[in-house]
């Protein structure tokens, strides 16, 4: 960026309460899926790149071609450790992009895979990662059709970073997005939350429980296809609650749709070992990342149908209805606690657990 370009950026116009103007340098929170990351997108990237496909700010861009409607999504993966209970950076790279396309209403088809490798990284580890990517792609029914490799000097990377970009075909008659939630809609989640983030942290912190916490890393396109086949246009919004967890995802939907979201905290499924790990580390499960779960906002008359479809699928057996879209407290997420009180669940500033995807 030239000095002249830098001088034209007016930080004083950026929004409160935590504007980017307070952070003249990038901090870890900018990549955490919270307020800082949202500010970066809203005030830096979006004004620079603004176009109709980008404006939606969903998990994938949707655009029309003469041959049909397509969805495109890209994501970069920097997780540490590279291998963890229930997955690896390779499986995560495939499943993460597949899921972003699927929750946008698309049938994932083709992926690219780009690798940034650090000098000295063991070739055997790279081979294991690539094999996991191959297996995940076959399970999801997608093909890796192009890619790139770059190598950086020793000490200038962290083993391996992976970027995947995916393209999928939009299903006819399906229109979903973060701005389409309507008052009265039911909110469902496809299973227990917090599994991925706590699997990563249990390895990092050396935590031991009666049973090993495993990541939920999985491709959801099959499960989502079943839901759309059963409920179609009654599905208004789908998101996969990754960075920032369920809290960030539902806050973003509430803001985009200008609605309130009311949750029943007791209905949110959390595994006992994940809850114990969160309590030990002082974390709230609703803020912890997931990599194999989806949140659905559907017309109330179809909520039972969607729940039945979810629970009939191996990846949705612990699905639950957890709340309602409301006209009360617009642009806010409020949960009814087990004690009968209400608490506001705000969007986090950054990520409680960095480098989890």
Automatic annotation (TrEMBL):
<comment type="similarity">
    <text>Belongs to the HypE family.</text>
</comment>
<dbReference type="Pfam" id="PF00586">
    <property type="entry name" value="AIRS"/>
</dbReference>
<dbReference type="GO" id="GO:0051604">
    <property type="term" value="P:protein maturation"/>
</dbReference>
<dbReference type="InterPro" id="IPR016188">
    <property type="entry name" value="PurM-like_N"/>
</dbReference>
<feature type="domain" description="PurM-like N-terminal">
    <location>
        <begin position="59"/>
        <end position="169"/>
    </location>
</feature>
<dbReference type="Pfam" id="PF02769">
    <property type="entry name" value="AIRS_C"/>
</dbReference>
<feature type="domain" description="PurM-like C-terminal">
    <location>
        <begin position="182"/>
        <end position="328"/>
    </location>
</feature>
<dbReference type="InterPro" id="IPR036676">
    <property type="entry name" value="PurM-like_C_sf"/>
</dbReference>
<dbReference type="InterPro" id="IPR011854">
    <property type="entry name" value="HypE"/>
</dbReference>
<protein>
    <submittedName>
        <fullName>Hydrogenase expression/formation protein HypE</fullName>
    </submittedName>
</protein>
<dbReference type="InterPro" id="IPR036921">
    <property type="entry name" value="PurM-like_N_sf"/>
</dbReference>
<dbReference type="InterPro" id="IPR010918">
    <property type="entry name" value="PurM-like_C_dom"/>
</dbReference>
